[in-house]
Amino acid sequence: MELEKFSYDNKIVKYFTIASIVFGVVAMLAGLTAAIQLFYPAFNFDLQYTTFGRVRPLHTNAVIFAFVGNAMFAGVYYSMQRLLKTRMFNDLLSWIHFWGWQLIILAAAITLPMGFTTSKEYAELEWPIDIAITLIWVIFGINMIGTIIKRRERHMYVAIWFYIATFVTVAVLHVVNSMEIPVTLFKSYSWYAGVQDALVQWWYGHNAVAFFLTTPFLGIMYYYLPKAANRPVYSYRLSIIHFWSLIFIYIWAGPHHLLYTSLPDWAQSLGVVFSIMLIAPSWGGMLNGLLTLRGAWDRVREDPVLKFMVVAVTAYGMATFEGPMLSLKNVSAIAHYTDWIVAHVHVGGLGWNGFLIFGMFYWLVPKMWKTELFSRNLANTHFWLGTLGIIFYALPLYIAGITQASMWKQFDAEGFLVYKNFLETVVQILPMYMLRAVGGSLYLIGVFIMIYNLIKTAGIGSFVSDEEAEAPALEKKEITGGHWHSVLERKPVIFTALSLVAILIGGIIEMVPTFLIKSNVPTIASVKPYTPLELFGRDIYIREGCNNCHSQMIRPFRSETERYGEYSKAGEFVYDHPFLWGSKRTGPDLAREGVGKLKKSDSWHFYHMLDPAQVSEGSIMPPYPWLFEQSIDQGLTASKINALRTVGVPYPDGYEESANNDLQAQAKTITDNLAAEDIEISGDAEIIALIAYLQRLGKDITVKD
To answer: What NCBIfam families does the record point to (predicted)?
Structure first.
């Protein structure tokens, strides 16, 4: 049979690898900065661009899309060409993808610290960047599907299945969750409100973890682990069961992030059921990876690549067991809003994604530079530093999480809360936050050792930009028979369509009833839209990332209703674009901040934002002095009102013409209250708008005192 000569494109893999490493360091430095700020608030350097509320989304986006994303593309571009025995479909598309993705990352790195955010976790980027992400993702998809279609290998190996599922699912997730109405170039409001917005966001948020941080890396595991171990994948049949069950079940599990919230009970229950079912396919994948090493375990002692990959797959197994356990309602009641969740996420992020990426890079770079790894000892040192880093990161946060939950829920013999002041719980866990920063530092030092090792490896080698290869052309005749799945693998377009159907079913069944059946979100007549001044205050709250530390969702537990007031109702949030329920309580819940026993004076909020530690001794919240110097732009009032009316908020027709009159009247009331306590400040200062919003919280329904 005549062989066709062609070449693999290593240059694009090299560039994605370099980008991943560079942005990985930036992402981890941002994470370390945020970690230090939690016990040393002054580490924001008195700048509004580096507060925890702005650095935290910068960190998560940089890790997910810059570090992990670029590494994913490096792994996909290298493995796909070799599995399909062809060069990528189009070199120009590869480079448009690369540079487009880096520009998106740069745009995120600029806009997030500036406070341009939608506030939706892992989807904080504003609408122009969302459009750019869509376009670049489509280019990646065209390049990938085109490569599959022009392949010389009839059989589509398991890694390719996971790459296909990643492409179609991330496209659906991103487009649906990013539906928003623009106000300005850097400001938009979510198309969805309240309960629906929360459901869509966590359908996206959970499955961003599933289909950006998991499925492509399972594909990478299925290629690089057998290559590094020089062993075939343990079981083809297990990989089939693993793939189809995983992509079908995963998409249903999002509601487990919203247990005991105002989400309808049936949706919560669906999320729990499918989360528990997830253990089976997840562990099927883990076992398929670990059993691939049968006969090669003796090499794990010596080979740093295998060391990293074994711990990565083990961390995947741990995280995918813990995730379903956390989705049980009785466990979620303890763990949710605590640092337990942060520990869980980082076992997956640092262990599964980070270690698999490091193992892949240690394997890839010598291959592309045609040499041996410069130093196994340095790679092993990196491995142990990274492992210690994960332990020092996760264990203190597990302790912190259990401590938080225990203190929040503790009652004395007379039935009163033992720790009434939220700050009492914060002070107790500060040592754990310090240890977490130590763990992050160890992990980062390991990364710097890897960078040195890889640079030296490249220095002693010679990079092969276009790697020569040859393979027979794909036969044109249709081959029938064989295993049913191998027949399906010969039809990539049908395979892609079936993957799309598999991931659409769960999302449709969960979301459509929530949107169309009104009883899922019972309305409350007393709930009214935000006033113009409150709207500006809410947007400032979003800009500063306050919902990274404060929740606005009181669960129906006695410990929470005693501490915060009446539990939250679905109908309270019908005008919340976006929802602000939060996912972590570094500070107290604010859902009833403006009413009942939690209500504070305007001057308290004024001084609290000016210097939190002076008002609340021991507070780890930073000061916000710029709120007293910056003014709201009343020229945007009409645009905000019109945009929200478009998505269903019932502002009267023409109200935008007189809205500023109401804004100024409400601002005057607050400034008069402050003046009575000898505080002079302009009515258009941002702090006035923020006070108006905080004083509004909880006022729409009757609250128990």
So the answer is: ccoN, ccoO, PRK14485.1, PRK14487.1
- Whether the per-residue pLDDT at 705 is higher than 50: the answer is no
Which of 15, 27, 14 has its CA nearest to residue 349? 27
Both 485 and 558 in one domain: the answer is: no
Element holding 372 (H helix, E strand): none
Tell me, what CATH number does 120's domain have?
A: 1.20.210.10
Distance CA 345, CA 648 (A): 35
CATH classification at residue 640 = 1.10.760.10
The 3 state secondary structure assigned to 54-117 is HHHHHHHHHHHHHHHHHHHHHHHHHHHHHHHCCCCCCHHHHHHHHHHHHHHHHHHHHHCCCCCC
Residue 550 annotated in ligand binding: no
Kindly state whether residues 499 and 584 are assigned to the same domain.
no
Considering the domain architecture, whether residues 466 and 599 belong to the same structural domain is answered as: no
Same structural domain, 295 and 164: yes
Interatomic CA distance for residues 192 and 179, integer angstroms: 8
Residues 311, 384: one domain? Answer: yes
Residue 242 known to bind ligand: no
Strands (E), 494-645: none
Q: Is 675 inside a domain boundary?
A: yes
Question: Of 450, 628, 446, 638, whose CA–CA distance to 535 is shortest?
Answer: 638
Same domain, 344 and 239: yes
- Looking at the fold, whether 248 and 102 belong to one and the same domain comes out as yes
- Per-residue pLDDT of 560-601, as tens digits, reads 999 999 999 999 999 999 999 999 999 999 999 999 888 999
485 among annotated binding-site residues: no
**CA 675 from chain center: how many Å?**
43
pLDDT number for residue 679: 96
With respect to residue 34, please indicate whether it lies within any of the assigned structural domains: yes
3-state secondary structure 200-219: HHHHHHHHHHHHCCCHHHHH
For residue 291, the enclosing domain spans 11-510
Distance CA 291, CA 93 (A): 37
Averaged pLDDT, 250-259: 96
pTM of the model: 0.96
Distance CA 489, CA 495 (A): 7
Helices (H) and strands (E) in the chain, counts: 27, 4
97 is annotated as contributing to ligand binding: no
Mean pLDDT of all residues belonging to the chain = 95
Task: Point out the domain boundary residue: 477, 510, 543.
Answer: 510
Per-residue pLDDT at 154 = 87
pLDDT tens, residue by residue, 287-304: 999 999 998 899 999 999
Tens digit of each residue's pLDDT (9 = 90 or more) over 71-105: 999 999 999 999 999 999 999 999 999 999 999 99
Among 141, 19, 133, 135, CA closest to 70: 19
The single-letter DSSP state of residue 336 is T
In the chain, how many domains are there?
2
Inter-residue contact 83 to 22 (CB < 8 Å): no
Report residue 326 as tokens.
């956390």
From the list 133, 300, 320, the residue with the least C-alpha distance to 210 is 320
Evaluate whether residue 353 is within a structural domain. Answer: yes
Q: In terms of C-beta density within 10 A (0-12 exposed, 13-18 middle, 19 or more buried), how is residue 46 classed?
A: exposed
Q: How many CB atoms lie within 10 A of CB 67?
A: 26
Q: Is residue 3 part of a domain?
A: no
Compute, in degrees rounded to 10, the torsion defined by CA atoms 694, 700, 703, 705. 40
